[in-house]
Design brief:
The complex is a heterodimer of chains A (about 525) and B (about 375). Chain A is of the alpha/beta class and about 525 residues long. Helices cover about 30% and strands about 25% of the residues of chain A. In chain A, strands 6-7-8-3-9-10 form a 6-stranded mixed β-sheet, sandwiched between helices. Chain A has a 6-stranded mixed β-sheet with strand order 16-17-18-13-19-20. The two termini of chain B are about 40 Å apart. Chain B has about 375 residues and is an all-alpha fold. In chain B, a hairpin with a 2-residue loop joins strand 2 and strand 3. In chain B, helix 7 crosses helix 14. Chain B has a single domain, classed as ABC transporter involved in vitamin B12 uptake, BtuC (Orthogonal Bundle). In chain B, the strands form 2 sheets. Chain B has a two-stranded antiparallel ribbon with strand order 1-4. Classes of the chains: A alpha/beta (about 525), B mainly alpha (about 375). At the A-B interface, helix 9 and helix 11 of A face helix 2, helix 12, helix 13 and helix 18 of B.
């Protein structure tokens, strides 16, 4: 644990008192210690990265700072030398401590003007009527500082992810003219396509240049190297190390996070399935974002789907699973004859959805209830739900896929993202499908679990399962796919096989086709 | 590394009181958790009410007659509340049920009076017309995709209009309704009237259905996260449609019982059950299986509110006291629960997510 604040960060003068200092912060949840005596500091004008696997305690730490959680007694914090009370659960800890949470906290049905005004205040006249023109001007001026050009009155739902993120940052900084203070960004780039990340990082630097310190939480280690001055690594609720980013590399940082050697360049190395039976065929798949796609998936094949947002990458898997309203086309599984796409549910093609929180996890259910959701018919005759066989199946899958939980009765939301994802995969695999559709398999999944998921997928493929994997994370595709379809404007524009699949060719194919 | 067997030692009340964990974990009931205030708060309130009134009115309250009065007087409220468990579990409101109760009661009474139909047929006819309304509800809510709260409010209004049109708002009174038609609900067994037993039997059925059948689990899943349920191959629309049929059928039955106990076909008899039924359901959802509408919780809520009201009557409290009591108890019971939820980030994120989900651009 490094306490040598002020002596190393490029943005900080020697022995300058830290902007934020926390010491001995602990947080005990029933059954687990989420944070154990965490101490760290953020220097003035510094971009400080906070990294760690899921379950390492970084979200808990953020939530304590934000006032969602109460820290255990003995936890202390100072901002600008003023003590911050971590034991209260008041909504806002300090007016110089601002947050952009992962879900951004915006009202998507409202425009930028309203969103910013709701955070600060509406400009009103003597009789409290809102002066919309001035309000809009103020908003335009504020967003202009971030170089954002946006229809201010259009609902944010229609804005791009990066625009929304920038609006969220602007909203967090409403009423703040720069100067010492801390802006906490929690996974700001989680939903951004690669080419927007650089833009956002530029904006973050701009905020720093105004004299504001930034605590930057991210899963993407490359961003940490690009932007951060120092990095604090959390593991199992403790600080492993705080050190300058200079002199570190991705491998070393990943090792600090995982605590063991990790192979960042993991490759499953699955054999090409040439000559094996074609399990799934689809032809002329069309929808709003799909303009006639043909797919052929062989036994034991892991077929990737790559592309930029809007390319049809996100829609194709749903269409094949029969879960995309309005999709047309035909599909055939195991030579059972062609069926229109909307009836493909009868082929039993399970799908692990892209947005785990919204489309997959039932947060009020336990781990077990979540796991067995699509095989409930198996546990008794006449729709009867017998508990013993259900528990047996849950136990079997939890050990097969190595879910870390206090038990099958634990609420699913007590699990880390990676473990929730494993449960969602188990839910689909429990149906013993021949084909599995997997969207964003490692979104919000920590490095260690990520590899476990890759290995698990590879094992399943070797056992004959065919997988269609769509991902915005090229790492996923590189790690497990035997073939990748690159999509653009609703069509497959490139097909990469075996050794052709490299980071470079993938990105090139995605970006190049964008220009056309 | 896999941890399969939960260790009960280090778990606190809060972790255990979450839905499903009490019974589901390791398959055995954890008694300490089961008895926690969070889990069965309403039971403690019920006990407290009994203690207070026993001290306040030692002559009149602690009597068998009081128990009988509570049970007899609230059996139909219990039936009405239980009718809504299935649709509400899928987060589908059925506000038309109270009007359906009036409709089925009037129908049964009419058939008995004018056509001398036997009781079983009258009862079946009452449930039959209720089912027709159920189908209409299903059509409006599921097929036409009108929000269930508004949709069933509208159909309920139509049902009331239809009743008024046919009956001219006259209550059907006839000696023929005083005989065996009344016995259906006023006859006693084991010291209490039949509807108490009907409610108990229905509660057992609903409990088994919701807890021990695949369909019950799917109904809860549909209510908690319809998108996830749909992607897990659950036929969400079919379930919601059918859930509206069950509430119609049960409220049809309750309506006939109500008409029977009133010995008349009153065109507005059901309306007064609208709010009590929802009140007991939402209090019931805080008991035993937090967050899930459940049969036993509903019965406890009915007893709690009923006992308080009867007790207030026995101590000759003023007329407004009963309503005030109901209001205070409702807010107290639900605030404990609401506080618990909104004080967690998960709750807030969840609410926000649900709020914004419908505004997301179609993908």
């Amino acid at each position: 644990m490094s306490m040598g604040f002020g002596s190393e960060g490029p943005g900080s003068a020697p022995l300058q008192p830290p902007l934020l200092r926390i010491t001995g912060v602990s947080k005990t949840f029933p059954g687990t210690v989420a944070l154990d005596n965490v101490s760290m500091d953020v220097a003035p004008g510094e971009i400080h990265a906070l990294v760690g696997q899921n379950g390492s305690g970084k979200s808990t730490l953020i939530k304590i700072l934000a006032g969602y959680h109460q820290a255990d007694p003995g936890s202390l914090a100072w901002l600008n030398g003023e003590p911050v009370d971590l034991a209260s659960t008041a909504g806002s800890r300090h007016h110089r401590l601002r947050f952009v949470h992962q879900d951004l906290g915006l009202f998507l049905e409202l425009g930028a003007v309203d969103n910013l005004a709701l955070r600060g205040e509406f400009i009103t006249d003597a009789v409290h009527r809102i002066r919309w023109k001035e309000q809009a001007d103020a908003t335009r001026e504020l967003l202009g500082r971030f170089g954002l050009d946006l229809d201010l009155h259009k609902p944010l739902a229609e804005a791009t992810p990066v625009q929304r993120t920038v609006v969220a940052i602007a909203a967090a900084l409403v009423g703040w003219e720069g100067g010492p203070g801390l802006l906490v960004l929690d996974e700001p780039t989680a939903v951004l396509p690669p080419h927007d990340v650089a833009k956002l990082l530029e904006i973050v630097r701009g905020v720093r240049d105004q004299g504001t310190s930034i605590l930057y939480v991210s899963h993407r280690l490359d961003e940490v190297f690009e932007i951060a001055d120092r990095v604090t690594v959390l593991r199992g609720g403790r600080v492993v190390e705080t050190r300058p980013v200079q002199g570190l590399d991705v491998q070393a940082l990943a090792e600090l996070m995982v605590g063991a050697d990790v192979d960042a360049g993991y490759r499953a190395g699955l054999p090409a399935p040439d000559g094996r039976e074609v399990v799934l065929r689809a032809r002329d798949v069309r929808s709003r974002f799909l303009g006639g796609v043909d797919v052929e998936l062989r036994e034991g094949e892991v077929l990737g789907v790559a592309g930029l947002p809007g390319s049809g990458r996100d829609e194709l898997p749903y269409a094949l699973a029969g879960a995309l309203a309005g999709a047309t086309g035909q599909v055939e599984v195991s030579g059972q004859g062609w069926l229109p796409l909307r009836k493909s549910a009868s082929f039993d093609i399970p799908i692990v959805p892209a947005d785990r929180g919204r489309e997959a996890v039932i947060s009020e259910f336990s781990v077990g209830e979540n796991l067995t959701l699509s095989v409930l018919d198996r546990f008794g005759k006449f729709g009867w739900l017998r508990r013993r066989p259900e528990r047996a199946l849950v136990g079997q899958w939890m050990s097969t896929i190595e879910v870390k939980a206090t038990g099958s009765g634990a609420l699913i939301t007590t699990l880390s993202g990676g473990n929730q994802q494993k449960v969602m995969m188990a839910r689909c695999l429990a149906r013993d499908p021949r084909v599995l559709v997997l969207c964003e398999p490692t979104a919000g999944v920590d490095v260690g679990t990520r590899q476990a998921i890759y290995e698990f997928i590879a094992d399943r493929a070797r056992a004959g399962l065919s997988l269609l994997v769509s991902s915005s994370d090229t790492g996923d595709l590189l790690a497990i796919c035997t073939r990748v379809l690159v999509m653009c404007n609703g069509r497959v524009v490139r097909e990469l096989v075996g050794d052709e699949i490299t980071e470079q060719t993938l990105l090139q194919a995605m970006e190049e086709t964008e220009q056309v | 590394m896999t941890t399969q067997l939960p260790t009960d030692s280090g778990r606190s009340k809060r972790a255990l009181a979450v839905p499903g964990s009490v019974q589901h974990a390791a398959g055995r009931v954890n008694w300490r958790a089961g008895l926690s205030v969070r889990n069965i708060g309403a039971v403690y309130v019920l006990i407290a009410i009994c203690v207070v009134f026993s001290i306040w009115a030692p002559q009149t309250f602690p009597q068998v007659a009081t128990i009988r009065q509570v049970l007899d007087g609230n059996a139909i409220t219990a039936l009405a509340g239980l009718a809504l468990i299935i649709p509400l579990s899928t987060r589908t409101f059925d506000l038309s049920f109270a009007y359906v109760m009036s409709l089925s009661g009037v129908t049964a009474a009419h058939l008995v009076v004018s056509d001398n139909v036997n009781l079983v047929l009258a009862l079946l006819a009452g449930i039959g017309v209720a089912l027709i309304i159920g189908v209409i509800n299903g059509f409006v809510v599921v097929v036409m995709r009108i929000d269930s709260f508004i949709g069933t409010l509208a159909t309920g209004s139509l049902v009331q209009a239809f009743i008024s049109f046919v009956t001219d708002n006259n209550t059907i009174n006839n000696l023929k309704l005083a005989g065996s038609f009344t016995t259906m609900s006023e006859g006693t067994f084991g010291g209490v009237i039949y509807p108490v037993w009907y409610a108990l039997a229905l509660a057992i059925l609903l409990w088994l259905f919701m807890e021990y059948t695949a369909t019950g689990r799917r109904l809860y899943a549909t209510g908690f996260n319809p998108d996830a349920a749909r992607l897990a191959n659950i036929k969400v629309n079919k379930l919601r449609f059918c859930s509206l049929l069950t509430s119609a059928a049960i409220s049809g039955f309750a309506g006939v019982m109500l008409a029977s106990s009133l010995s008349s076909g009153d065109p507005t008899a059901g309306t007064s059950y609208l709010l009590p039924a929802f009140a007991t359901l939402f209090v019931g959802a805080t008991v035993f299986k937090q967050g899930r509408f459940n049969a036993w919780g509903t019965l406890v809520a009915v007893l709690m509110l009923g006992t308080g009201t009867v007790g207030l009557g026995l101590v000759a409290a003023p007329l407004w006291a009963a309503d005030m009591f109901t209001g205070v108890v409702l807010i107290a019971a639900l605030s404990a629960n609401a506080f618990q939820r909104s004080s967690t980030l998960r709750g807030q994120a969840g609410q926000f997510r649900r709020l914004t989900a419908r505004f997301r651009p179609a993908s």
